[in-house]
Batch of 4 targets.
Target 1
Amino acid sequence: MSKQKPATRQRSVRVERKHEQARQEILAVAQDILLQSGAEAVTLASVAGELGMTKQALYHYFSSKEALSRSLVAALVDNEIEALIVAIEQVDSGKKSLGTLIRAFYKHYRSRLDAFRFVYCQSQLYGGAGAELDPDTIQKDINPRTRHLFDVLEARIADSSASKSKRNRMRKLAFTAWVSALGLVTMLGVADAVNDPLVHSDEDLLDAMSSVFDAAATSWAK
């Protein structure tokens, strides 16, 4: 088999780069529509209209609405993980990382509840309707991103000399803190939807959750 010529290779790289750039622009528009009008408004037709292109042209980048939705979820998860890691790495004490995680998760999604629902409620909302995340997307696109977050958290809250079992315990604690933050935002979303605020203020709940997990991180590290 003959090798690809340098000029042909360069053209191929340029085409791939241009294609990926177009995909990112499409996803950015889809995210804007999601945040402004909700999940049901994110369709191939609406995205194409915002971009001034035909729906058929959009098929060159995404084969279906479901394919667009899956890529949008991955992009939203990327945004979340980046925001959480930036917040965690700005904290001086590693033992304050879990409280910081909880607050950063809340801050990232509190005013973007449609994005939160799109990422975390798709299966419940669309199960069996063909719009839910498929196992391949979860394994290849979602899990590596979340593993990276917990790698960062484990390194922050566990001493470098800690045993493997202790590091596993700290990682489990970090995961529990993240799930707790997810649960808080879920409850706030429900409360907002039915116009029935929770008994405790957001700040009181964040203070309580943060103090519990920061104390646990300090205790478990001994």
Note: The chain has a mean pLDDT of 88.
Target 2
Amino acid sequence: MNANATLVLGFVHDSNDVYSLVKLTPAQQTQYSNPALWQPIFQDCEPQTLPKYCVGRVADPNGVFDRPSKAVFSSDGQNIYVLNCGPECGGRQAGLVTIPITAAVLNQNPSGPAGLSLQASRVLAVPGGATNALEDASTLYVAGQQLQPDGLLARQISVW
């Protein structure tokens, strides 16, 4: 969840799926009161008769999600960093996926719900795994476990 609680991301265990939880405006609640209108925008809305919240998939046109496990929101609110767990969690490559946040993706007017335009844009490979992160001003510390030659995992911290 970002600092002002306008955007929430969720992850499905052992998959590459990332979802955003959207709080609808009153006009959108009426607009999406018919479940037939949800697809292809939303996977689910609750309550179904007059939805207040809906869940939609974050676009990943380049297939950059690789066992995503956590999201860290930048302190300036302009980016989301999704941690790809990679080999630690059965994936191929640990990494850091950037999702830009613009005014167009936030729910500030009745024309469109928040999070509908969220799209993974780029990935940075993280050699030592990526399961947790902490931002300090302009530095992002990424912690994980790196696969060793003996097949065991060892802790690793990367600085971005």
Note: DSSP finds one helix and eleven strands in the chain.
Target 3
Amino acid sequence: MLAVGVRAEPDLDTVLGALPERALVVGLVGIANHDNMGGLFRNAAAFGADAVLLDDGCCDPLYRKAIRVSVGAALTMSFARAGDAAGMAARLAADGFSVVALSPRARSTFPTCSRRRARRCCSAPRGLDCQIR
């Protein structure tokens, strides 16, 4: 199958401005593998995330392999580039998000983080230890 389309990625302000009062955003940092990117988009959609933010080091979620692995979620989920990880976290905090980060070397467990979920929350799957700010 062959298709032609116009690629239009909304900017960060547009994506954050369109979010509901209670929102869940997934922030991705340094995801370089298209299979992983597709899987993360698929999971974000399955868990009801409102948007996905990508740092500058992330691969393209609209690459054919990422779209296939995401089962089309990369085409339906709202997403935007958000600069580097620190800038993304700062911007989300300024917009009233509670930033919860997950890392393989975390010092606390996820149930500890999830007890106090704020009305706006950003889950970042890697990069920072699990903490609530």
Note: The longest helix spans residues 34-46.
Target 4
Amino acid sequence: MADRKVAFLGLGVMGYPMAGHLARAGFVVTVYNRTSAKASQWVAAHGGTSAATPADAARGAAVVLMCVGNDDDVRSVAMGDAGAVSSMAPGSILVDHTTASARVALDLHAAAKARGVGFLDAPVSGGQAGAENGKLTVMVGGEEKTFASAEPVLLTYARAVTLMGGPGSGQLTKMVNQICIAGLVQALSEGINFASKAGLDAELVLDVIGKGAAQSWQMENRGKTMLADKFDFGFAVDWMRKDLSLCLAEARVNGAALPVTAVVDQFYSGVQARGGGRWDSSSLIRLLRDSS
């Protein structure tokens, strides 16, 4: 982009490294984080500046990117009294990387459009490792012209950036992603537990079937840690339940049947009840091990 000034709002496990990739690519980055110490830490590591409010961070930026927690956070950071949209200039672009509802994406698109600001809902997949390695997959909803302008910025930390349709389409696509992951993790948990109960070398089993039709990202990246009963990393169960609640709520609107997703969501509730809210989502296998 001709204008290299951007802002990044939200420096969690995803936003912190994503903003870092922007700085390394030569963008002039202003950051905002609800906990100011995290913003100061980022500036010390990457340069740029920090701002006291989303509006201050967004002022003068050609592209404002955000990655926060949930719908309420999105509304507060983007549309609150000191929200980003209030200070953005006509022709600038707001990109929301938060996994949120399609409804909030539509509302934010309308608020941005009223100010002459472009908007993209652009949730990501790839987890913390993908953010740190600049290998995220970005699913985008919005207008083609806005997407074309913002795409070079998004490619700074992504391996694939795809426009899925109009506003809200990115969030709907991320819901499909989470629906598929939930079923895969439960199936992988059951398979590993079955292998162990059958007296097989479960690690060898994963190596063999990972070369065939059962292969998946979850098997490749979580199989061995599931065997080792290690879950103190990765995508937290609390966040997975938040995402699945979005899927189930949308399904009630569009009439899609999600029987497996609903069951797996309740299994995750069981993990939370055991104190595993911050465990990686692959911890579903704990329920099977503990019940036997």
Note: The beta strands are 5-9, 28-32, 49-50, 63-66, 93-96, 118-121, 124-125, 136-142, 158-165.
